[in-house]
Amino acid sequence: MKILVIEDDKKISEALCKILKDSGYDTEAVYDGMDGLYYVSNGDYDAVILDVMLPKMNGFEVIKLIRSQKIITPVLMLTARGDISDKVQGLDFGADDYLSKPFAPEELLARLRAITRRGHEVISDILSFGDIEISNKSFVMTKGIKSVNLSAKEYEVMKILVSNAGNVVSKERFLIKVWGEESDATSNNVEAYMSFLRKKLHYIGSDINIKAVRMLGYKLEEGHD
User: Fold this and answer.
1) What is the CATH number of the domain that holds 66?
2) What domain range is 187 assigned to?
3) C-alpha angle 64-186-101 in degrees, rounded to nearest 5
4) What is the pLDDT along the chain (225 residues), one digit of tens a residue?
5) 29 forms bridges with which residues in the sheet?
């Protein structure tokens, strides 16, 4: 699997490439936005790691132009800025995920696995994980002969959990993707929806577990605690 790293800080770029190579990835590195756009447009990559603060062309401009060219390569954006507005902007322009600096190598690799897995998914009317199936049209969640209706927001939450199964998804990401930047929703809303979904999973007899990871977020696993 080949990853393009677009990061102007050469020490950080070298560290990223080492982490990736040690995990079995092939890497290429460029150091400004214009070169990054050229390489993405003309190369064949399984994913791109894209810094926001770049010379010549910033990361937001790069991702916007990549998507305008109908290039669907998964993109993980890196930012040293913690503002939700920056993260929302990157996601709105077409980034698949974001990661704030500094970060743990394990989290980088987990997020990279998640976006590359999604990038190779076959579009289907059914979302499935473990013993459940969810209709992308009717929002009905089924296990065997038992089923339950999901609300629109419950469906969006489950879609994120299933797409990132086994990996932790932060409450902040749920708030951005499901409720939106302008919403007054808080982490309490996320917690409430996790409770709703656990009850519905229990109702249909599913073995799927929505696990709360203290101080980090939630992840979907097979098997109850």
Assistant:
1) 3.40.50.2300
2) 126-222
3) 50
4) 889 999 999 999 999 999 999 999 999 999 999 999 999 988 778 899 999 999 999 999 999 998 887 777 899 999 876 667 777 778 888 888 888 888 889 999 998 998 887 655 444 578 889 999 998 888 899 999 999 999 989 999 999 898 888 888 899 889 988 888 778 889 999 999 999 999 999 999 999 999 999 888 999 998 765
5) 5
Q: How far, in Å, CA of 8 to CA of 58, rounded?
A: 10
* Three-class SS state of 78: strand
Q: pTM here?
A: 0.55
Among 190, 187, 185, 176, residue whose Cα is nearest residue 92: 176
Q: Are residues 148 and 186 in the same domain?
A: yes
CA distance 94 to 169: 18
Question: Does one domain contain both 146 and 87?
Answer: no
52 and 145 fall within a common domain: no
